[in-house]
Automatic annotation (TrEMBL), chain A:
Name recorded for this polypeptide: Putative hemin import ATP-binding protein HrtA
PANTHER family with a match to the protein in the record: ALPHA-D-RIBOSE 1-METHYLPHOSPHONATE 5-TRIPHOSPHATE SYNTHASE SUBUNIT PHNL, LIPOPROTEIN-RELEASING SYSTEM ATP-BINDING PROTEIN LOLD
Organism per entry: Salinicoccus halodurans
Family to which this protein belongs: Belongs to the ABC transporter superfamily. HrtA family.
Membrane topology type: Peripheral membrane protein
Superkingdom, taxonomy of origin: Bacteria
GO cellular component: a single term: membrane protein complex
Transmembrane regions: none
From TrEMBL, chain B:
Domain ABC3 transporter permease C-terminal: 61-170
Coiled-coil intervals, chain numbering: none
Any one GO biological process: transmembrane transport
Species, as recorded: Salinicoccus halodurans
InterPro entries reported for this sequence: ABC-4_Integral_Memb_Prot, ABC3_permease_C, ABC_permease_BceB-typ
PANTHER family named in the record: ABC TRANSPORTER PERMEASE, ABC TRANSPORTER PERMEASE-RELATED-RELATED
Protein name: Bacitracin transport system permease protein
Membrane topology: Multi-pass membrane protein
Cellular compartment(s): Cell membrane
TM ranges: 20-38, 58-80, 101-134, 154-176, 197-219, 231-257, 287-311, 522-544, 578-604, 616-634
Length: 252, 642
């Protein structure tokens, strides 16, 4: 088991005016899994991702990554942990406009001691897999949104982290760019045995993953496993669950 | 590729965002350094008779400058920190600890900062020559300006900037420690709108704010009616206007905006989107900033106006105390110098005017504000009586009297009423005349009259008064003025010829004029310098703020342009925004200045409007430059948004 969450609670606001976003979530994720988190707006999916990925702190509960509790790590340890074990993909890419595609991708490697040839090899592998190898010397504002998001994905994969967290990675992409990205993520997931956890509201996007966890009002509502189903069948199953949940693909 | 190279590359790519910050930093260093350098300039100091005045003035000026610079640099730093939060968050996400991120910031800042320090000192060295020339020009001193470099000034500047650097690092450290990663990723999008609801409180505070300002203004007009409470009143007015301004910006303006916005019922047009709603979105920080800028503008404009008024009035002020070129204490003095001047072939006219001192009754034409008079140390009003036969310029009727040489500040505690009887008193003897005119022109030197006004009367009246006059040896009232006028132009050469330790003492108009010119000139220069620094920094701060907002609102411009609004339409809305953000504080600043100057200008000089309007005009012009710069920046952003 790579990630284990125990009774995660998260609330915002002061004592008088409190909003509980997560009301006690238990979660287990195995190594090499590709998990999607779905739910209506305000169900707490992004908040869950933020606390699991150490961007935000939990109010109570514990998160273990490979048996290590990360909820009360010191800054230095937390930084090391992010450096070695975590990768991030955001909806708005979060690339530095001042760096080229290659520099952006290599950023996580630049803070560890690696041989230059190994770095090059790793870059060729990941960038080639994501189809952005030819863009290496371009700046982010010179390439398309889909290419930018693949650059962002490459940055998340480059240091072979244990878990990659993706927050609505396809949110700003058209369907073609989205399916390209998701297929690449799927391939990388299978090839490198890295774990991916993705927040999405798009059933199509979720159907690329192996397991879908549905949240409702800050609690886990149900879980779907793809198992031996085809992607189309899995998609239909997700749609069915979603309509039971009451949010038939109408949320923003 | 190591982290350092990436960071450096990122930094140098980013440097164009820093351009103005660097420019402002260099400028502030140059300003401070040249200021310090000037204060250490020995050749200039030797030349100035008012050397101690100069060093005190420079000291006060430099303290103010330090204050401005620290505020400014820290504010600019906070803006840049916020602009870079995403980048800093990303560094943390890929696994840099906060300490490491702090070290990156430290390194970057050190490069910018010490680079600017270096350039600024060089630039300041060149500028200081220019400034010194300006200073000597205002003080009307002819002196070749040489190039002298002071290591002490460099050290002083360097020490100050190292201290500021340490402050900045503390600021950065606190920012990194305080700000959570999650907030850093979302910082730009957070609204600072303070007044989501239009409660009764907003309305009440809005009205209170305006009322406070009006009360402050009203008190400032009346300030000399309550002269005993001068100091508490002064602070009261300051407090009222400052707090009132803040409340006005925070509540009155917000209230007004809210009203306008509500009245639109959701039908906002493009101008509203770019001006109204955008200002409201960041109202909280705007309120504080706009208050600061109004107050600072008012302060510097007010001080500059007052100092310019006194500089502008020197001629008149001297005329009212020194009627002749040279005045002597004793008859022997006059005789000595008559001989000295004749020996040197300089033509002159001797003037001897006899005078007697009478007291004036506090009745009829004269009404004295007793509290104020006591504060001024004048228990009764002395008048020096002079016969009109001694003066060419006066011809007074037998029952009449003309008061002249009335110092301009005397009218703050004595009211002279024309066409009223005025009673002169000496011991038991009283004599009443009608006051027909009050003027400022001096006929006796102030050092004969000790600042009392001169009463010019008819020759016969003078003789009568003289015959009843009891000269009091102990009081030592003046009896006669011995003076001489140089035929043609008086000059410093003549003054220097006469001015010798062994010679009898005397007063000279030309030397007084020079001393005043130097004193007030120095004052005006330093206040102008500091005021300029104020102007520059507040302009820069507004400009930085606009740069930040334009970056934040880039998305809105893109949306608007996608919706089909032309660049020109968007720019129109932004022009309104600029007019409000720059115009409102300026307007309030101008109003504050007017009332401040209006309250006390007569203590400084004889004319108010010309000097005040000159200062205000110059300020407005410089200030507008920053509004235009901001608008140009907006234009660039709008253009690039699509």
């Amino acid at each position: 088991m790579i990630l284990e969450a125990r009774d995660i609670k998260k609330s915002y606001g002061n004592r008088l005016n409190r909003t509980e976003v997560l009301k006690g979530i238990d979660l287990n994720i195995e190594k090499g899994e590709f998990v999607s988190i779905m739910g209506a707006s305000g169900s707490g999916k992004t908040t869950l991702l933020n606390v699991l990925s150490s961007i935000d702190r939990v109010t109570s509960g514990h998160i273990f990554i490979e048996g290590q509790d990360i909820t009360n790590l010191k800054d230095k340890r937390m930084a090391d942990f992010r450096k070695n074990d975590l990768g991030f993909i955001f909806q708005e890419y979060n690339l530095l406009d001042t760096l080229t595609v290659k520099e952006n991708i290599l950023l996580p490697l630049s803070i560890r001691n690696m041989k230059k040839s190994d770095v090059e090899k790793q870059f060729e592998l990941v960038a080639g897999e994501l189809g952005i190898y030819d863009l290496e010397s371009k700046y982010p504002n010179e390439i398309s949104g889909g290419q930018q998001q693949r650059t962002s994905a490459a940055r998340a994969f480059i240091h072979q982290p244990k878990i990659i967290f993706a927050d609505e990675p396809t949110g700003a992409l058209d369907s073609k760019a989205a399916s390209t990205l998701l297929r690449k993520l799927q391939t990388l997931n299978e090839k490198s045995r890295s774990t991916i956890m993705m927040v999405t509201h798009d059933a199509t996007a979720a159907s690329y993953s192996g397991r879908v966890i549905f949240l409702k009002d800050g609690l886990v509502y149900s879980t779907l496993r793809r198992g031996e189903h085809s992607q189309e069948d899995f998609y239909k199953e997700i749609m069915n669950t979603q309509s039971v949940l009451g949010g038939v693909g109408v949320e923003s | 590729m190591s982290l350092n190279t990436i960071i450096f590359k990122n930094f140098f790519k980013n440097i164009k965002n820093y351009t103005l910050y660097i420019f402002a930093l260099i400028f502030s260093v140059a300003l401070y350094f040249s200021f310090v350098l000037m204060s250490k300039d020995e050749s200039a100091q030797e030349e100035l008779s008012s050397g101690t005045l100069m060093s005190t003035g420079f000291l006060v000026g430099s303290v103010l400058l330090v204050f401005i610079i620290v505020t400014f640099v820290m504010f600019a730093n906070s803006i840049f920190l916020k602009r870079r939060n995403k980048e800093l968050a990303l560094f943390q996400l890929i696994g840099l600890s906060r300490n490491k991120v702090f070290r990156i910031l430290l390194l970057e800042n050190a490069i910018i900062y010490f680079g600017s320090l270096f350039l600024g000192i060089g630039f300041g060295f060149l500028v200081s020559r220019l400034l010194l020339m300006i200073l000597l020009k205002v003080m009307q001193i002819e002196l070749p300006v040489g190039l002298s470099f002071s290591m002490e000034a460099v050290v002083q500047t360097a020490v100050l900037y190292i201290v500021i650097f340490a402050l900045l690092m503390i600021q950065n450290f606190v920012f990194l420690k305080r700000t959570r990663l999650i907030n850093m990723l979302n910082l730009n999008r957070s609204s600072e709108s303070a007044n989501k609801k239009l409660g009764a409180g907003t309305v009440a505070f809005g009205i209170i704010g305006l009322a406070m300002i009006i009360l402050g203004y009203w008190l400032s007009v009346k300030i000399f009616d309550h002269s005993l409470l001068l100091v508490p009143l002064l602070f009261g007015i300051l407090g009222l206007t400052i707090i009132g301004t803040y409340l006005t910006f925070k509540f009155s303006v917000a209230f007004l905006f809210n009203m306008v916005r509500k009245s639109k019922r959701g039908h906002v047009n493009v101008n509203d989107v770019l001006s109204l709603t955008s200002i409201m979105f960041k109202m909280k920080s705007n309120a504080f900033l706009l208050t600061l800028i109004s107050i600072v503008s008012a302060l510097s404009m007010g001080l500059m106006s007052l100092s310019y008024i006194s500089y502008y009035s020197i001629d008149k002020a001297i005329e009212s105390v020194m009627p002749n070129d040279y005045v002597f204490y004793e008859e022997e003095g006059l005789e000595f110098y008559e001989q000295l001047l004749s020996e040197n072939g300089i033509e002159y006219d001797s003037v001897t005017i006899p005078t007697i001192e009478y007291d004036a009754k506090d009745a009829g034409a004269i009404s004295v504000d007793q509290d104020m008079a006591e504060q001024a140390g004048a228990s009764s009003v002395h008048l020096n009586i002079v016969s009109d036969a001694e003066l060419d310029t006066f011809d007074v009727g037998e029952n009449e009297m003309v008061l002249t040489g009335v110092p301009y500040f005397m009218e703050t505690f004595i009211d002279f009423e024309i066409s009223q009887p005025l009673t002169l008193v000496n011991d038991e003897y009283e004599y009443t005349l009608e006051l027909i005119e009050v003027g400022e022109e001096a006929v006796l030197s102030s050092f004969v009259t000790y600042g009392s006004p001169v009463a010019v009367v008819d020759e016969k009246v003078y003789d009568k008064l003289k015959s009843h006059y009891n000269y009091d040896e102990e009081k030592g009232a003046p009896q006669e003025m011995y003076a001489l006028d140089i035929v043609g132009e008086d000059s410093m050469e003549i003054y220097e010829l006469m001015d010798d330790e062994d010679n009898p003492p005397f007063e000279s108009k030309i030397s007084q004029y020079t001393a005043q010119m130097q004193g007030t000139g120095m004052m005006m220069f330093i206040i102008g310098f500091v005021g300029f620094a104020f102007l520059l920094t507040s302009g820069c701060i507004l400009y930085f703020k606009q740069i930040g907002e334009s970056e934040d609102e880039k998305g809105s411009y893109q949306v608007l342009r996608k919706l089909g609004f032309s660049e020109r339409e968007i720019m129109k809305g932004l022009s309104i925004k600029m007019a409000i953000t720059f115009g409102v504080p300026l307007l309030i600043g101008l109003l504050h200045t007017y009332f401040a100057v209006n309250a006390g200008w007569f203590l400084f000089g004889t004319a108010m409007w010309t000097p005040m309007l000159t200062v205000m005009g110059a300020y407005v012009v410089f200030y507008s430059v920053f509004a235009l710069l901001s608008l140009m920046y907006y234009k660039k952003v709008v253009k690039q948004s699509m």
